[in-house]
Amino acid sequence: MTETMQAPRGAGAKKRLFVQSWGCQMNVYDSHRMADVLAPLGYAPVSSPEGADMVILNTCHIREKATEKLFSELGRLRALKEARRAEGGRMILAVAGCVAQAEGAEITARAPYVDLVLGPQSYHRLPELLARVSRAAGAVIETEFPPEDKFDHLPEASAPQGVTAFLTIQEGCDKFCAFCVVPYTRGAEYSRPAAAVLAEARRLVAGGAREVTLLGQNVNAWHGEGPEGRAWNLARLLAALAEIPGLARLRYTTSHPRDMDAALIAAHRDIPAVMPFLHLPVQSGSDRVLAAMNRGHKAEDYLRLVDALRQARPDIALSTDIIAGHPGETEADHQATLRLIERVGFAQAFSFKYSARPGTPAAAAPGQVEEAVKDRRLAEIQALLRAQQAAFNASKAGQEVEVLFTGPGRHPGQLAGRSPWLQPVHATGPTGLIGAVRRVRITAAHPNSLAGELIHPPDQEKHAA
């Protein structure tokens, strides 16, 4: 996923800030918060790097070829930076996020025109780092894990995210999956206090948010301190968030099967605001591969969780992550993954070929799978997952569903929204319905979205009243 900050925000700002995010929703949240940190310095987001005073590339190390994508974009930005200098101005070029954390020195060696490299735990220090950039003869690199909690140093005020908003409640990971760099780039698991999360959620709702997605590398491992001084679990936090007036919907991602406890499963049954959609990565259907990945669960453990979730919330839809061709994976292991996918029936999924991440145990493991074999296995996995997603979408045709309208659609008079199961939905309606939840009859199902019509158009609602 790639996202750029929309612009401009705020009046009278003299400096133009362009932020581009790659990867997970946490990076999107981080990008918004970097813009908040820089706002007091006079920076306002713009939608293009051309003519920008500062460009931040917020990187992700999870996806394949992340480093190559970064250097390709840096090469393009170098020309813009030189053009800005020729005009008598300056473009500060910064690389942030997980690639910055993992490869800081390599970035400045290959791209010496980069002014600032900072890891995801340091963006609250951007004003100080920019001051150092103004004094430095070369690049400033800040990839140490600072002793202070960055959330305690972020400004309370933040720009509205819109009808749907992200809220990071947990960072880091203690699981050390063999293929993953997150423990090395984001650090140990940390849970924000409940009071801080609730306060930020109230601010988001005051800014127009109707749906909030809680974010964390292992979000269901959250165990933040409660107001009374004892730790809360995620289920209790969801219950407290659901009491905020105006907050209609709650989601959370990404979860680990080992942290999916009975209380959280019950929350899907008992808290109406918790949407019937869960992203629960399994990665493989083979116990042998799961052990090599250091996942800490077996395929049967995952299937028991699926059964418990569906018993608690029969309409719940599941999404997952699948890795094809992890080192040591055999054809029998691949077939076990296909069987697990068939058994679960996913509504959505993200699937990738295994790609080595330097410094992770899997990168040096024996039994690296040939690229052609990984390609073929991934194609088989994705064909099955696409068929399942299409079938799930098709099952909604003719149904009436609650849709949260989030903004205008692509065509005049059209609105875009989300179903409870995170499907994009398009329907004809006035812009006054943005931010409202309305019943929609689904008239057509497409591979990646739904089309529908309002059950009670606004003029009929007035007549009925």
Task: Give an overview in words.
This protein has 465 residues and is of the alpha/beta class. It folds into three domains: 141 residues, Rossmann fold (3-Layer(aba) Sandwich), CATH 3.40.50; 245 residues, tm_1862 like domain (pyruvate-formate lyase- activating enzyme), CATH 3.80.30; 65 residues, Beta Barrel (OB fold (Dihydrolipoamide Acetyltransferase, E2P)). It is 34% helix and 22% strand. The strands form five sheets. Strands 1, 2, 3, 4, 5, 6 and 7 form a seven-stranded mixed β-sheet that branches. Strands 16-17-18-20-19 form a five-stranded mixed barrel. Strand 4, helix 2 and strand 5 form a beta-alpha-beta unit.
Features:
13 helices, 465 residues, five-stranded mixed β-barrel, Rossmann fold, disordered C terminus, seven-stranded mixed beta sheet, OB fold (Dihydrolipoamide Acetyltransferase, E2P), alpha/beta, pyruvate-formate lyase- activating enzyme, 3 domains
Which CATH architecture of the largest domain would you pick?
Alpha-Beta Horseshoe
Total of domains: 3
Rounded to an integer, what's the Rg over CA atoms? Answer: 23 Å
In round numbers, the mean pLDDT is 89
Instruction: Describe the largest sheet.
Output: 7 strands, mixed
Low-confidence stretches: 7-13, 460-465
User: Could you give the count of β-strands?
Assistant: 20
Total helix count? 13
CATH fold field value of the largest domain = pyruvate-formate lyase- activating enzyme
* CATH top level assignment of the largest domain: Alpha Beta
Q: Give the DSSP E fraction (strand runs of 2 or more residues).
A: 15-25%
Give the assembly state of these chains: single chain
